[in-house]
Structures are given as C-alpha cells and as structure tokens.
Amino acid sequence: MEKRLKRIEEDALNEIESARTGEELEAVRIKYMGRKGLFTDLLKSMKDLPEKERPAIGAKANEIKGKLAGLIEAKLKSLGKKGSAQEASIDVTMPGVEITRLGHKHPITQVINRVNEIFIGLGFKVKEGPEIENEYYNFEALNIPLEHPSRDVFDTFYIQDDILLRSQTSTVQIRVMEKEKPPLQVISSGRVYRPDAVDASHSFMFHQVEGFMVDKNIKFSDLKGTLSLFARQMFGKDTKIRFRPHFFPFTEPSAEVDVSCIMCAGKGCRVCRYKGWLEILGAGMINPKVFEAVGYNPEKWTGYAFGMGIERIAMLKYGINDIRLFFENDLRFLRQF
Ligand SMILES: [Zn+2]
Q1: Ligand 1 center to residue 277 CA distance, Å?
Q2: Structure confidence at residue 75 (pLDDT)
Q3: Which of 88, 121, 156 is the last residue of a domain?
Q4: What's the CA-to-centroid distance between 260 and ligand 1, angstroms?
Q5: Interacting residues of 116 by C-beta distance below 8 A, sequence separation 6+
Q6: 286 and 189 in a common domain
Q7: pLDDT < 70: residue spans in the chain
Q8: Cα separation of 285 and 306, whole Å?
Q9: In CATH, what number is assigned to the domain containing residue 320?
Q10: Rounded CA separation 137/22 (Å)
Q11: What spacing in Å lies between the alpha carbon of 251 and ligand 1's midpoint?
Q12: CA 320–ligand 1 middle distance (angstroms)
C-alpha cells in the first residue's frame, strides 16, 4: 500500500510538472483528486488493510493530496501570468472580424420614413402628438358630436372619464393649429388604438399618418394633386387615384380615396376583389367648425386634410396578407425587408 501511494505521488508530480495549460492541469487534478480519481480509489481500498495500519496510511495519503493540490494551484497562477503576457502581445494591426449580418429598420418604420420623405419634398413639416389624449382633442375639436358611435367605449380605449388612447392621428391637427398660425403644411404619424378583435386585417394598435395644409385659397384640386403625386411616388408612376364621396365630421366635403390596384394595374385580381381599385385613405376640405375650434377665421383660411393607415400601405406595397405579422417580431418575416 505504501509503495502504491509513493508511485501515485511520483506520477502526479511528473504530470503537474509537464502540464502546459490550465486545461491540462485540470485534467491532472481530476485524474488524481476527482470523485473517481486515484486517491479516492486508494482510500476506498484501505478497508482491506489491517485496522492498525489504516490511520498511518490515511494520514500519509491526505498529506500527499494536500501537497499536490498546493502545487497545482501554484502552477495555475504562474500559467495565468503567462496568459496575460500573451494578451499584451495581441497584434492590433490584424484585420477585424467582419460583421456579416446588420440589423435594419422595421417595415412599418420604412413606410413611415418613405411617406415623410415624399411629403417633406412637397414642403410639409413633420410633427408629433401624444398617444394619450383627452376627449376634446380626439373628438370635440374635430367636430365629432357626443352621440357619435366612435365615442362609444366599444370603439375607444378610455383610461379615465376624459382620458383615452387616441383613436386617430387627426388630434395633431388641432394641437398644431392651436399653437401656430397659417400657412401650415404638416405631416404626422404615430400609433393609434381601437378595441378591435385581432384578426388578419385588424389590430387593437396600428399606425396612421395624418397630413394637412392650411392657407388662403386652398382648393379641393390642391388636395387631389398632392395625393396623386403621393400615390405615384409611393406605388409607381402609372398609379391612378379616384375619389368617392364620403362623410367625415372634420372635413367637408369628404372623400374616400382609392388607388388603381398595384397588383393587377386595374385589370382586376383577388387582392382588389376584381374591382381594379384599392381604398387607401380618407380625405377632404377641413370643416369650418374645426377652424372655429382653434380660433382661425373660416372666412379667411381654407385647407385640406387626409389620413391613412400605415399597415394598409405596407401590406399593399409588399404584398403582405396578415397585419399580425408586423407585430410578432418573427425574424424570418422581418429579414425580408
Ligand atoms: Zn387587382
């Protein structure tokens, strides 16, 4: 038994001596001192010894074990110092690691940026408004009467009696007109909220962009010209638009605006339900009552306003058939844009 102990000690000393790395040292430690190591084996086999001899051998084995552990630790420290010496000699002139996958903007952000770009080119300024609003800015100032169905709790998220999540970006019209005097050309986009059940074409949160212009002698033809140019820049130079009469409380007259189907160029397909046209926005001449609410003289000033859903534009532009894809953060979807 003593001979065996002596041989294990010599072998271990040699192996510690010749170890060159921390990993090699760790392997030595496990081989001798680990749970299934040679020392553990040896101590287990002590039960075969006469009882008298056991304490002496046990003490000797523990002494050697302690000595080896100390040696391993000392050697690890000296290897560590060499390691940091190596770090200091890193070649800083070596070429760096190439970044092969860069992130990019979300498709919704890309569409907002493109819309802004087009209107900035026409002299519009970009403004923002709060997402948490009160009833005055979301409804009253926009000539939406108390009995209007959109003011119902089923169509608007109320936080408190008078505080709500804005259900449209037209609120920004009022906030800007209150602070500034005409002439004004403003574009504003952001999130809006409506308690709709989520499906392929509805979400309780989506994005809108609102644009308006106020000056002397602004006519319906100015609105039509601006929107035609926008449609051609957004969807392609052959895109046509048409206006259908509609009603909105904050514009008079009002229209819904369609673009010729960008999938079939107006011939008729599944996307446009064989009509050749796609509805993209609502627009009209700003109602004189809205001007009165912000203290403008409706005899002096005229203007137009329009609003559209960003997701709708992005879905048409990229051929996406489910609005939920925008908000699920699935990288397989997002990497396509
Ligand atoms: Zn079509």
Answers
A1: 7
A2: 85
A3: 88
A4: 8
A5: 126, 187, 189
A6: yes
A7: 81-88
A8: 9
A9: 3.30.930.10
A10: 69
A11: 29
A12: 14
Q: Are residues 21 and 149 in the same domain?
A: no
pLDDT for 120 equals 97
Query: How far, in Å, CA of 213 to CA of 118, rounded?
Result: 15
Per-residue model confidence (pLDDT) at position 81: 65
Centre of ligand 1 to C-alpha 115, Å, is 22
Do strands 125-126 and 184-193 pair parallel, antiparallel, or not at all (unpaired)? parallel
CA pair distance 299, 313, nearest whole angstrom: 35
What distance in angstroms lies between residue 222's CA and the mean position of ligand 1's atoms? 27
pLDDT of residue 86: 55
Written as one letter, the residue type at 195 is P
Q: What count of residues does the chain have?
A: 337
Whether 99 maps to a domain, the answer reads no
H helix or E strand, kind and range, residue 27: helix 22-33
Q: Are 74 and 140 in a shared domain?
A: no
Q: How far is CA 177 from the centre of its chain?
A: 32
| Alpha-carbon distances, residue 292 vs 54, 102, 183, 216, 313 (angstroms) | 105, 50, 16, 16, 32
Q: What tokens appear for 180 in the block?
A: 């500034």
**Ligand 1 center to residue 285 CA distance, Å?**
29
C-alpha angle with apex 185: 181 to 191, nearest 5 degrees?
105
Domain boundaries, position 223: 107-334
297 occurs within a structural domain:
yes
pTM of the shown model: 0.69
Same domain for 262 and 212? yes
